[in-house]
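Folded chain entry
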Amino acid sequence: MRKHRRLFLFRAPPWLSQNHAFPRHPELMNAEPPFAAILAMPTCRLGVRIRAGALTELVFLPPTEATQPANDPLCVALEQALSRYLAAACDFPALPRVLDGTPFQRRVWAAISAIPRGKILRYRDIADSLASAPRAVGQACGANPLPLIIPCHRVLASTGLGGFANHTTGWLVETKRWLLWHEGVLA
């Protein structure tokens, strides 16, 4: 009589399943730093990140997000500037900032920064001035780390409003619409 070998099928351990998030060492993770403040706006909240006394990122957050008081002097200055903007649609003052981006993104952001309040440009206009493509300009707009200060909401698609913060629908696009209305561009 022949002995039969048992055939063992490999069964993946639970920590190897596709549905499981692998634990990672904190130093190896690309975790976002916490917000130094979360400020209220009419259509959303604005998360503020700073590093070494300079603004590094402004993040539009859902309107349901809880606010967080500004304790850092730079955050207080930004909060005051935001209050002035919300009251009278004035431009933001020059605040210390650090922009991490590619050379192309920086050129797009410089072009966007030159758009005066109450005016708009199309992605194609900026692309033509930089000898680039509208889609590349749109991607650089979506990567803008300091919206409001670098007013990417003033850049529209040739067919209409366009996207905002890498979204084409939802509360973020409504925030873009509100910002343009607030600045007198949309009726």
Notes: Confidence is low (pLDDT under 50) at residues 15-26. The first strand starts at residue 37 and ends at 40. Residues 73-88 form the longest helix (16 residues). The radius of gyration is 23 Å.
